[in-house]
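To assess whether ligand presence alters the predicted conformation, the chain was also submitted together with aspartic acid. Input:
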Amino acid sequence: MSLVSVDSLTIDDIYKLFSLTDNKRVVKLNKRIANVFFQPSLRTRTSFELAADLVGCKSTNIFEKESALDKGETIYDTLLTLSLSHDIIVLRSGEDCTNFTNFNIINAGDCKEHPTQALIDLYTILKHVYNPHVLIVGDIVHARTATSLIKLLHKFNIPFRLFFTQDLTDPRKGELFRSYYLDAVKTNTGIKASWGYNNYNIIYLLRNQVENHSGFDSSIDYINFNSIVSLVKKDTMVMHPFPRGRELSQVFDSDHRALYIKQMKYAVPVRAAILESLLNE
Ligand code: ASP
C-alpha cells in the first residue's frame, strides 16, 4: 500500500480514485498517518492533514527541525521508527522515494515525481475541460510535478506539448523526457503565436525551480504572463501547481480561466481518496 510513482496506477485505479473523490460520504478509518516533510510545503502538507481528518485518521507531523536528521540519523531510520506506530507515511524529501518502498509510503514530492499533485491536476482537467489539449510551459525539466503529470497525460492519451524555458541539461531527466515527448517544443527566444497556442485549451504554467538546479540562465527563464494570456483563446484555462512566480500574475485570479483556484481546492478531496484507497488495501 504505497504510492511512489504514477507508473504503478492503471487507468482503472485512477477512475476508481476519482469516483471516491466525488463520493462525499463520512469515512472513519481510525488509522495513523505520519506526515514527514523534510522540504518546505504549504499546500501538500496542509491538504494531507485535512484529508486525514476527512477520512477519520490521526496525523503526526514531523519537520526536519524536529527530527533527528541533524544528529546524523538517516531518513530510512526515521521512517523505520515511524512505521512502527503509523499505518502510512506521507513523505516529502529530496531523496528518491523508491529507496523506502519497504514502508507504506506516499510520495508527497521527491527528486523525481509528485504523483498526488498530478492526480489532482488530472482530476481537475477531466472535471472541467472537454477534449483537453494541454500545453505545459516553464521549467519542465526540473519540475517533479511535470514529470508525473506528463506520464498521466500520456497514460490517458490526452494530447500535450511542452514549451521548455530551460534546456534539457539534466541527462538523467533528459532520457526520461525523450521517451515521453515525441513532439516537444524547445526554444529560448520567447513566446510566439506561431507555435500554435491556439491549439490548446489548457495552459499549465510552472515556476522556475531555482532550488532544483544550478547554472540557471535567468535571461531565458522569464515567461511574460500577459503575453501568454493575450495569445491564448478566450476559453483557454490556466493551471499551476503553485507556488507561483512571475509567470502568473495575481491579477488573473478573478478571471474565469483561472482553473488553478479549483485545482488547489481539489487537493483535499483527492488526497482523502488516495488515503482511503491505500489504507483500505
Ligand atoms: N509544489 C510543487 C512541488 O513541490 C510545485 C513547485 O514547487 O513548483 O514540486
